[in-house]
Design a protein that fits this description.
Number of strands: 17
Oligomer: single chain
Largest sheet: 5 strands, mixed
Distance between the termini: 34 Å
Length: about 475
């Protein structure tokens, strides 16, 4: 059964800050004093790659604080050692929370991530976390009454149908759009787990509805409903050539043509997402050529016009090429302005913001201009490294001469360079954030225009005494 967060009756500050700013002011159990506390998020809900958004240390009084930015409402994870709690955050909110100590019976296994309940200080029953807590409590109570009774799937579905009607009535006055979707797709997940008729699930929760890429509950349902979908289709009469499209041809367009025989899904965007998910599933199948899967995914990445699909396919490729967050940052050699060979490994012990660019790409050139300001602000904290992907050394040298303010380490992808190969660069741009241990702290990293500055602010902000209204 679901276990909700615990809410403590004091205050959740829901004051508006500047746009998309979120502050989390926390107090931890005394056993955590001096320990690192980490806020992490998922890059997407298909690969489920986690990225660290902010880090702090619990001070001598038990306090910590995070300041992050987000345009979307979403769940994030807060961890101390092996303990992890979930918190739903919304733009322009300030949260006061309590992080519990270890339960000697339930969460003392080092190295094993153990869920804990985060206490949220607040009175407002319409705040998102409070609503989720209330909904999960209602769900828990529904089955608590029948815990000693054997329930058939039909009986469980009947109980869920009754609970659905009660929930609509209970929350009819709630306007929070995320909570409405939370309830809707929680029921979708409930019904999926009870083997509800798939046609019903498709018509009720998928057909003629938008794909909610950034909604955790929707994507949980999506991944469960379509688990093994492309493999199953490949085993049918209409899908018999799917394996050939991948193994023999490595051709995305051919794969699309073969998948067009699936008459269940008529939405082209949904079909492409199913191909993306299916390719990720196929990659680990013993009867599939992994190199061909990567080739097809690379084609999908280049050809898709859907931003979310481009992002997910790139994240999947990063996984397959061992460029996922937490992996060792690949070393490389490249020439600098004086044609001296530079090695990335020489920067071990420093934070590195690495990017690739080309003078042929206006987008990447605009990002280079934004790095100028980043360097002014974080030069003592971060080492900036850029690699020019131009074939011509002349255009590389001309660019440096025309942009004297770009005075960080800017290298060239010469014939003896291994940078492009090491980072499997498939476009004219790319960003990576590397920690002092030469590990990928964010891969792919946010571009300057996407808000990497906020991550730097979170990591390198001055550590001041934490004052949390309502806790002291």
């Amino acid at each position: 059964m679901k276990v909700a967060l615990i809410i403590y009756s004091f205050m959740v500050c829901a004051i508006q800050l500047h746009a998309q700013s979120i502050t989390i002011k926390g107090k931890a159990h005394p056993s955590h004093i001096g320990k690192e506390v980490v806020l992490s998020d998922y890059i997407d809900y298909l690969t489920y790659n986690r990225v660290v958004e902010s880090v702090d240390t619990v001070d001598k009084n038990g306090y910590f604080e995070f300041n992050i930015h987000s345009n979307t409402t979403k769940p994030i994870n807060i961890s101390i050692e092996n303990l992890t709690g979930k918190l739903y955050i919304q733009p322009n909110y300030v949260y006061g929370i309590f992080f519990p100590g270890k339960d000697s019976l339930n969460n003392n296994q080092e190295g094993t991530e153990t869920p804990v309940d985060i206490t949220i200080y607040g009175k407002d029953s319409t705040e998102l976390n409070a609503l989720i807590i209330d909904f999960n409590s209602q769900y828990n109570n529904l089955f608590l009454k029948t815990r000693d009774t054997y329930l058939t799937p039909a009986k469980i579905n009947a109980l869920l149908d009754t609970f659905l009607i009660a929930s609509k009535k209970r929350y009819q006055h709630i306007k929070n759009p995320y909570f409405k979707k939370y309830v809707e797709y929680s029921f979708a997940n409930f019904y999926t787990n009870t083997s509800k008729n798939k046609t019903f699930l498709y018509n009720q929760f998928i057909s003629h509805k938008p794909i909610l890429y950034t909604n955790y509950e929707y994507m949980s349902f999506f991944n469960a409903y379509f688990k093994g979908y492309l493999k199953d289709f490949a085993s049918t009469k209409n899908g018999g050539s799917i394996y050939n499209s991948i193994n023999n041809y490595g051709d995305y367009q051919d794969l699309k043509r073969e998948f067009s025989g699936d008459k269940t899904t008529k939405n082209d965007t949904l079909k492409e997402l199913l191909l993306l998910k299916g390719l990720m599933d196929f990659y680990y199948s013993p009867d599939i050529n992994q190199q061909q899967v990567k080739a097809v995914l690379e084609q999908l990445y280049r050809e898709t016009v859907i931003d979310e699909h481009k992002k997910m396919s790139l994240n999947a490729l990063q996984n397959f090429y061992d460029l996922q967050t937490g992996a060792d940052a690949p070393n490389f050699k490249a020439n600098d302005l004086k044609e001296t060979v530079f090695e990335l490994s020489s920067l071990k012990g420093k934070y590195v913001y690495l990017n690739f660019f080309s003078t042929k790409s206006e987008v990447s050139l605009k990002e280079m201009q934004k790095i100028v300001d980043l360097k002014k602000k974080f030069n003592d904290k971060v080492t900036f490294v850029s690699v020019c992907l131009d074939d011509s050394v002349k255009t590389y040298l001309g660019y440096l001469k025309s942009n004297p303010k770009q005075n960080w380490i800017i290298l060239h992808q010469a014939k003896n360079s291994t940078a492009k190969q090491a980072y499997k660069v498939k476009s004219l741009s790319g960003f990576y954030f590397i920690n002092k241990q030469m590990q990928l702290a964010q891969s792919p990293a946010l571009a300057p225009s996407e808000g990497i500055e906020y991550k730097f602010n979170a990591l390198f902000r001055p550590r001041s005494k934490n004052t949390i209204p309502g806790i002291r």
